[in-house]
What we know:
Layout: E1 3-12, H1 19-34, E2 39-47, E3 50-60, H2 67-74, E4 79-89
Antiparallel strand pairs: 1-3, 1-4, 2-3
Helix pairs in contact: 1-2
Amino acid sequence: xxxxxxxxxxxxxxxxxxxxxxxxxxxxxxxxxxxxxxxxxxxxxxxxxxxxxxxxxxxxxxxxxxxxxxxxxxxxxxxxxxxxxxxxxxxx
Length: 92
């Protein structure tokens, strides 16, 4: 097994939700699942002022499916949905 690069896309309930708070809590959930590792955050404009938070992180493939992380992130207050939008095997 190797290393996977995973992207989780988080949609807030409304444009008024504090994205920084969601990002911080989501990164804690990611760290609990994947351990210490590099992460990158992107804010993606959707429509009408709504923005999605995309967090890219690295995990060991032996940990299994990253869907568990998306389910935990979806339980965060202010989050409408969270989904794994991309999984790639890291080379090198």
